[in-house]
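Can you give me the bound-state structure? Components:
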Amino acid sequence: MKREQFGRGSIPNYFIALAAIFALNFILPRLMPGDPLHAIYGDEALVAMTPEMEKALIREFALDRSWIDQLQAYIIGLLHGDLGYSYYYKDQVSSVILGALPWTLLLTGLALVIATALGIILGIESGYRRGEPLDRCIVASLMFLSGFPDFFIGILLLLLFGVALGIAPLSGAITPYAGLDGFEYLKDVIGHLALPLSSLVLVQLGGIYLLTRNTIVSLMGESFILTAKAKGCSEFSIKYSHAGRNSLLPVTTATGLRIPHLLTGALFIEIIFSYPGVGSILNTALNARDYPLIQGILLLITVAVMTANLIVDLLYSRLDPRVRYAH
Amino acid sequence: MHINPFRDLIHDPMALSGLSMLALIGFMAIFAPVLSDYSPYDYTGQIFSPPSAHHPLGTDSMGQDIWSRLLYGARTSLFVAFAVAILSSALSLFIGATSALLGGIYERFWMRIVDAMISIPSIIVMILVAAYLRPSILLLIILMSLFSWPGGARIVRSQVLSLKERMHVSAARTFGADWKHVLVNHITPDLAPIIIAMMIQDARRAVFMEAGLAFLGVSDPMMVSWGKMMQQALAFTYLNVWEWWLVPTGLALSLTLVGLSFLGFGLEAAMDPRLQKYKHRRAD
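Here's the bound-state model for the whole set.
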């Protein structure tokens, strides 16, 4: 009963926020000075446009009618999954994004898994050795690292391994026209993925590590740890089965809440390494002022981030029974 | 119970190192005209000149002196940081405190807005708005403040809710003080450490966002900005100009951000642990 209340609070908020985002996407181009068609499509697109195409677009957006009709046309378009037409790629916005999405998902998915696993292991080991030189060393270096802007970490890795040492490819996700297949293709993909992935992991690692370490430090004073020590559990079992397992809950929640940071981080990292994901396409769209594409990408990311937050919110009460009873 | 976290702060090595990093950047920003002979906008007559006595960091692809652009970039970053921190925390303080004191529909209205806005990824919406408006520095500050107040307002509200039940507030009320007097003279002073912590986080996010938007090329092109410099320099990684163009700029930006983080960590450690539970919420 009380648990539903927790969920009920977040679902309306989610829809209010979603409505605000759609409203912003609808209003922003129409607020711009001049012809709304110019603002929706950008000046560059209209150079290549014939009068017939222009008429068709005006009819599609209902720009010659009242704003209520325009809003209706906009909502119906969105419900059909129609995000508009990208004049730069000469294709539907939705299919341009779908083409780039697998690379972004590969990059962010692997980064999330590796950063979380590494952060938890480092956090447990370091929290268990609290105050020892190794612990102090890891804390200081990761705190320093987590202060760095994501794009500069990417740039440093690119300059060091790509430019100065020349041992990693400078851009892209695969070697173009190499015609590789099977194992060679996989090796090529991993080679191109290594630098962007390490940058993203380095950016994300600090937060997860510090949270796990703090949780472990506070757990080490609990009596169940003393019991485990007294009954002669091995050090590994105390660290991972007793303390580690109990630290998973705050870490899971925090990991879910890091998804926005992960996605914006991936945008910048992809631009730096010209990795052909959604971030690179966004960069191209921003430079070419391809407004339908910019809107489509940002709308997609916003909805993805907000949905992830909602899921974490709803899962939180299920993961931790104490939250259910506390309400 | 009054604790003074600022007294502990000067003994905290982390806060001290953060403060000294910021002092260095602040020194660069304040004395920019003294430290460099060139205007950041002037064409010096030579492009890509390597570091020399005249140009400590050489010149860029537009023939502008990189050292003076670095110095004036510090001005932009710090100005944006200060302005957003002050404007955003003023909004947080006003809306959070009045919600807690007035209650009722007013409180429910603002808390609903806060809850909805917290779930919106602000940097992504900022990119969208900036792509259309190409904001100048003032518009950028206003937009960033509008997106960053909600988290702070929630913290201020919960603090004020507990502060207004304290004895000294009741005492002031019995002496006939109205809520405005109580808010200004009795509640705001107790909120000071939390507001400072909020301002540091807002400032850090503002510096990052300004640089990020300029890096994406969606802010005012006339603004001297570290993000813009990095975007321009990234196109020339095949020349060795990155050694004195890209790396120093990135280091200056990182130093500012790390300085603000360290100051924030130090302050949070010195402050009461109640703030800890909000920490993971604001990590966007």
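A couple of observations. The CA atoms of residues 9 and 267 of chain B lie 6 Å apart. Chain B has one domain: 68-283.
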